[in-house]
Amino acid sequence: MKIAMISFHSSPLGKLGTQDTGGMSVYIRELSRELGKAGHSIDIFTRAEEENREEKVMLSQNVQLMYLTAGPKKRMPKNSLYPLIPEFVKSLDEYRIQNAVRFDLIHSHYWLSGCAGALAQEMWGVPHVLTFHTTGMAKNESCSKEKEPRLRIVEEKKLARSCTRILAPTEREHTLLNR
Fold first, then answer.
1. C-alpha 172: how far from its chain's center?
2. What is d(CA 96, CA 86) in angstroms, rounded to the nearest whole number?
3. How is the beta sheet containing 165-166 ordered, strand by strand?
4. Helices marked H in 6-68 — which ranges?
5. In terms of DSSP bridges, do strands 63-68 and 56-60 run parallel, antiparallel, or are they unpaired?
6. For the whole prediction, is pTM greater than 0.85?
7. Burial of 90 (0-12, 13-18, 19+ CB in 10 A)
8. pLDDT of 14-51, one tens digit each?
9. pLDDT tens by residue, 41-74
């Protein structure tokens, strides 16, 4: 299979422990490597946050990481990235057209990537799998200090209904998503 792996707000090569770069980035990188070893071809797409960075990085056999332009090439708080999703998807589709690529599957990670994946799914007519990694509802229920924005909750509900499949790693997340 040819898989478009979307990690909009966090690069799988980001420095671990910095803001918005942690377990999810490692998960995406290692999942992609294993899928590549199994013979699948994986293109991981993330937002470019640095000037003068290579647009494409080979990570391992059958796995490459693509940095796409969406907004300024600088690190931005993830809660400010939502308006850049259409530009990111436009860059993603331009990449697909310029390279004559046909993806068999989209796998997005986190709600922002899910929104990008949903737009790509509409354009390309291919299945869209989403792994939330965490949901706004779960964070709001368990963290009393910081509340996730209403936009996130609304978009996650739409995504939970529209994706072809959702990968829920825990029974608790499965229950929350069903609710």
1. 21
2. 15
3. 56-60, 63-68, 41-47, 2-6, 105-109, 128-131, 165-166
4. 23-37
5. antiparallel
6. yes
7. middle
8. 665 555 555 788 889 999 999 999 999 999 999 998 87
9. 999 999 998 876 778 999 999 999 999 999 999 9
